[in-house]
Amino acid sequence: MNKVAKAIYSIATLGLISLSLSMPSAPTNAVEVETDHVLVKPYDGSTLRRKNVQEFDRYSAFLGMDETLENPLSLPLEGKVSKLYYSHPKERSIFEIFENYKQALSNAGAKVLYQCDQRKYECAKNYAGPTLQKVSGINSITNLVGSYLLAKLEKSDQVAYVAIAVGQQFTDIHVIEITQMDKGMASLDASALATGLDANGYVIVNGIFFDSNKASIKDTSNKAIEQVAMLLKSRPEMNIYIVGHTDMQGAFDFNMTLSKDRANTVLEVLASNFLIERTRMGAQGLGPLSPQASNKNKDGRSKNRRVVIVMR
Fold it and tell me: Which residue has better confidence, 207 or 23?
């Protein structure tokens, strides 16, 4: 069992039991066999109905709807994908079961990236069931009731995302296990971006690339911009400046204009493709005025060509 598995399983088990102590005792016939996932202990009295495991696959994690509540937002993931579907005890409420899972994940050190309660129409305006099924393959939530969360646990060099959806009769548990190598550079991770912003007030977003001497962005930048969008989605109170930087090659006025145009391009991608409100973002360009390395060599110039997020 890897470090992430040990952390969640051992603490999640304690979390589920300790919460149950403050509530009426649950039935003791929970399925605890090897067919369950080692990361998440099922709620006491649950019965595993089906399980599907792909050793490496893509997964789209539901992250809510845009401000119009018409278009779903999601986080693309890759890794080992396990989908488990449980029926749960009839005498237990959605709230009780959902809060048990949520507390267990919190005790394990997981961070909840998104959650919603369909009783308040937070998951979707009208069609939560079909939306969650289409985006993430979740079947337990109906159009009227159900609670959902997406959480992330990071231990050492391993990462796991856990999506839990609790409906009236059934619970979906989806676990996506990702290694640091699969995840890519830490700087592309939304949590790392948030850590940098909280600590320093700014963070360099590695992985954003443009055509030479142009503001047109390369397709290879999509993953980095997706992480910025995820950060802004998870922190709705956050407003930012997107600041472009260049090296010292070329005319000064050209570089000043280019750096701002590139910042504007990133802003437009966030607004158009990820539906981040433009009022939360501003674009500025500093050209070559704030180098972080020498412009006398290729490596230094490469470091100076960058996009920085500054917290407003």
Answer: 207
Contacts of 122 (CB under 8 A, 6+ apart): 64, 116
pLDDT tens digits, residue range 236-251?
Answer: 999 999 999 999 999 9
pTM of the predicted protein model: 0.52
CB 301 within 8 A of CB 308: no
- State the Cα–Cα distance between residues 59 and 76, nearest whole angstrom: 6
CATH 3.30.1330.60 domain position(s) in the chain: 184-311
Tokens of 252: 């000064």
- The DSSP string of 182-219 is HH--GGGSHHHHHHHHHHHSEEE-TT--B-TTS-PBPG
Q: How far is CA 162 from CA 18, 128, 148, 196, 206, in A?
A: 21, 19, 11, 24, 26
Q: What pLDDT is stored for residue 200 in this prediction?
A: 87
Residue range 184-311 in CATH 3.30.1330.60: yes
